[in-house]
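Q: what sequence does this backbone want?
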């Protein structure tokens, strides 16, 4: 027969467990909703790019500049994320990021003129940038023993949001009267919902369960703080940054231009949007599977090679028979675009501490997005001056080769802390 003291201790322990469980569940919901909102600002624009160009009077080169704005904003604002997280807390920064996405998407279609459109887009992309960088940090801090599964979960949610925006934007625009402005603005409502789960985490005192209760000391429980780490001394950090940049180049060219490639090949606008959605939706199951497989491998190079070969095959199909094999090329490029969740997983694996992940994530993503800026712009210029898609597609295929090489280097089993210390 148990004593009252034992029953009281058990009850207190159950209450403490329950108290720690609800923030974790709310955080998982917040991560999923935030991830869903990290790409609709881009893919919804890709689906309506022709209408936006006509409505704002853009040339092909200016449209190429527009498709280069996302990586530019991600590079500029992403590097600020660790500093903001140290000052205000990661939860507060992500909450503010979701609010910025909401405001930017709501204002963008009605800003008036190309300059206003770009400025409102930059506001939304600023929110996306800081959230991009802090997602691996939050996963490392709250779920140090579930990096693969949690990275897979938010990568899958990100791919779902990307695909949904690509598939739904055109038919939703038709239902809203055929004007592109409401079709773009509707995604601000989804972003507004994503603000809510992060509000309880705005307080800097909101800490992971591991930090609220006694826990073993060690790297898994480190807080986000500035490490004594010279990240630029790490070859792995550079390889990961270049890999991130090249896969981002391919992704933003795909999101910004693939629907137009199909439309120019004679595919109807609605079908072209669905093809882009198929490319994006491939990331839903694969973004969950790839991180889990990657964390079980000592070297992630084989996954890099498989994704690269799929990309080369997809580009070859776009070059020789864009309309005839459209669905096959969309599938292959969808597989290739799953280099993004793989890169995020390697960010979490190539550093031992939460502080190291924060610095590596900011460096790899900011440097990577800087590398990716010229790609979409160059595609627009080549398309306008050559009058076709042959040269742009050849450029995309050529960039896949160095992506595979640096991906092999980034996938080696080592940490940036060890390399920087040498």
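A:
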């Amino acid at each position: 027969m148990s004593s009252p003291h034992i029953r009281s201790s058990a009850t207190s322990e159950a209450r403490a467990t329950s108290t720690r469980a609800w923030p974790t569940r709310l955080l998982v919901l917040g991560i999923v909703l935030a991830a869903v909102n990290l790409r609709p600002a881009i893919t919804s624009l890709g689906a309506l790019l022709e209408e936006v160009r006509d409505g704002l009077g853009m040339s092909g080169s200016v449209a190429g500049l527009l498709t280069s704005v996302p990586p530019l904003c991600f590079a500029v604002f992403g590097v600020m994320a660790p500093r903001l997280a140290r000052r205000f807390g990661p939860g507060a920064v992500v909450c503010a990021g979701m609010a910025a996405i909401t405001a930017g998407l709501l204002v963008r279609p009605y800003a008036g003129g190309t300059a206003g459109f770009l400025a409102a887009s930059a506001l939304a992309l600023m929110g996306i940038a800081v959230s991009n960088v802090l997602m691996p940090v939050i996963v490392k801090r709250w779920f140090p023993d579930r990096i693969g599964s949690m990275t897979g979960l938010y990568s899958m949610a990100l791919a779902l949001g990307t695909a949904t925006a690509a598939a739904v934007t055109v038919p939703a625009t038709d239902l809203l009267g055929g004007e592109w402005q409401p079709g773009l603005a509707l995604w601000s409502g989804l972003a507004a919902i994503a603000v809510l789960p992060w509000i309880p985490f705005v307080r800097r005192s909101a800490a992971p369960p591991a930090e609220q209760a006694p826990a073993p000391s060690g790297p898994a429980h480190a807080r986000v703080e500035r490490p004594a780490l010279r990240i630029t001394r790490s070859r792995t950090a550079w390889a990961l940054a270049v890999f991130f940049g090249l896969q981002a180049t391919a992704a933003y060219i795909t999101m910004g231009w693939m629907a137009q490639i199909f439309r120019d090949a004679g595919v109807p606008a609605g079908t072209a949007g669905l093809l882009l959605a198929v490319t994006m939706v491939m990331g839903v199951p694969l973004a969950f599977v790839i991180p889990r497989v990657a964390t079980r491998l000592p070297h992630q190079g084989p996954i890099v090679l498989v994704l690269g070969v799929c990309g080369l095959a997809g580009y070859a199909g776009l070059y020789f028979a864009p309309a005839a094999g459209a669905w096959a090329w969309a599938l292959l490029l969808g597989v290739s675009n799953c280099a993004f969740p793989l890169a995020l997983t390697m960010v979490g694996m190539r550093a031992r501490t939460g502080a190291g992940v924060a610095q590596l994530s900011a460096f790899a993503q900011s440097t990577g997005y800087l590398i990716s800026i010229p790609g979409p712009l160059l595609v627009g210029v080549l398309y306008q001056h050559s009058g076709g898609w042959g040269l742009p597609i050849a450029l995309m295929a050529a960039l896949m080769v160095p992506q595979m090489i640096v991906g092999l280097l980034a996938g080696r089993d080592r940490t940036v802390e060890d390399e920087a210390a040498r």
